[in-house]
Specification:
Elements: H1 15-32, E1 36-41, H2 47-53, E2 62-67, E3 73-76, H3 83-89, E4 94-97, H4 101-112, E5 117-120, E6 134-137, H5 139-142, H6 148-168, H7 177-191, E7 195-201, E8 220-227, E9 230-237, E10 247-252, E11 260-262, E12 272-281, E13 284-295, E14 298-301
Parallel strand pairs: 1-5, 3-4, 5-6
Antiparallel strand pairs: 1-2, 2-3, 7-8, 8-9, 10-11, 10-12, 12-13, 13-14
Helix pairs in contact: 6-7
């Protein structure tokens, strides 16, 4: 569970995958003549640091420093008592206690003689932690498309979301939405979902958090699910969603901040996205959603 039980299954994401990701980042640093890349990570923004190291913080913040020629270093605000655990679930060996992250980063720059450094998504990083010599490194520069290990995780997440939701929809009619959402959450958590958002509707509104309503025979449910740091979305309706959708929307899943709405024309080859569609049946709004990959100019369902 996210920030509960955290482990690293090396059969799912092998160490070689992280080496390839670091190699891509280092090639970009060499191209820009930058000695290191700093990745900010905290409880709300953990997936970028996790992408490069498999580290995810427990209710604190940290800076992952990726030098161009040496192993990554974690500047960590967490207590040293958890460092053995961090080493067991991440590729990191060197962890420096850093209650004052800004001071520790300045100290490291002075030690290494770094006159300027790259910062991943600089405009979205806390300015008070970063030196004035920071250079913005866009996410797409070091993560052009999801790699094979990422795709495997996205496919597993989508398969989990799809199978559990479709298996449980038959039980929702007549249940109070709170009870149905709790039933779904139990299934998803036991299957390994780390983070979860479940929304429902009886067809009079878009999918919303449960409010204590009894679900009818045209209810819809939308699930946003995170598995090992990889977000997918799946939605289904108990009613028959057929014909031409009344409305369609696309959310980018593989960008630095999942769930950003975009146009189909903005999708690049390899991008992952959620397609939302709304139908009308007997005066009710029916909702359907699933997760896709843009490949060779065409959309492929994540299977």
């Amino acid at each position: 569970m996210k920030r509960g039980w955290i482990s690293w299954d090396k059969n799912e994401i092998p160490p070689a995958a992280f080496e390839q990701r670091l190699d891509t980042a280092r090639k970009y640093l060499a191209l820009r003549d930058l000695p290191a890349l700093v990745v900010y990570t905290d409880v709300w923004r953990s997936n970028q640091g996790r992408y490069f190291s498999n580290f995810m913080p427990y209710w604190n913040r940290a800076l992952l420093v990726i030098p161009r020629d040496t192993a990554p270093v974690l500047l960590c605000g967490l207590s040293p008592r958890v460092y053995p655990w961090i080493r067991s679930v991440a590729i990191l060996d060197e962890i420096r206690p850093s209650p004052d992250l800004a001071r520790r980063l300045r100290q490291m720059c002075d030690e290494q003689g770094w006159s300027r450094i790259g910062v991943l998504d600089l405009p979205q990083s806390p300015s008070e932690l970063l030196p004035p010599n920071a250079v913005d490194v866009p996410w797409i520069a070091v993560h052009p498309t999801p790699d094979e290990s990422e795709l495997l995780m996205y496919r597993r997440a989508a398969k989990m979301a799809r199978e559990i939701l479709e298996g449980e929809m038959q039980y929702g009619n007549g249940m109070v939405d709170h009870a149905f959402v709790a039933r779904l959450e139990l299934k998803f958590r036991r299957a390994g979902a780390e983070d979860l958002v479940i929304l429902t509707t009886n067809g009079d509104t878009p999918p919303l958090p449960a409010v204590g309503s009894t679900l009818g025979d045209t209810f819809s449910t939308c699930v946003a699910l995170e598995y090992r740091g990889h977000w997918v979305k799946v939605g289904r309706s108990a009613g028959m969603a057929s014909g031409t959708p009344r409305e369609s929307k696309i959310e980018l899943l593989s960008g630095p901040y999942p769930w950003e709405f975009c146009d189909r024309a903005c999708l690049g080859d390899g991008d992952l996205f959620a397609l939302h569609q709304e139908f009308r049946e007997r005066g009710k709004r029916l909702f359907w959603c699933d997760s896709w990959r843009q490949a060779r100019g065409k959309a492929e369902l994540l299977l």
